[in-house]
Give the backbone structure.
Amino acid sequence: MAKMRDDVALVCDKCKRRNYMTSRDLKKEGKLHIKKFCKWCNEHIVHSEKKKK
Ligand SMILES: [Zn+2]
């Protein structure tokens, strides 16, 4: 059975810290960009997906 979802880290665009883990649908094209609260920047910042290694 093929794996349909992939675990990725969500990295703050400002401080580059990995604040969240999520899973993405492998069938979807493009990278995830989700606006989430960053406790380090103390504000809502766009978080981009980074492949978990
Ligand atoms: Zn941040």
Q: What stands out?
A: Residues 5-48 form a domain with the Rubrerythrin, domain 2 fold (CATH 2.20.28.120). The mean pLDDT is 91. The chain has one domain: 5-48.
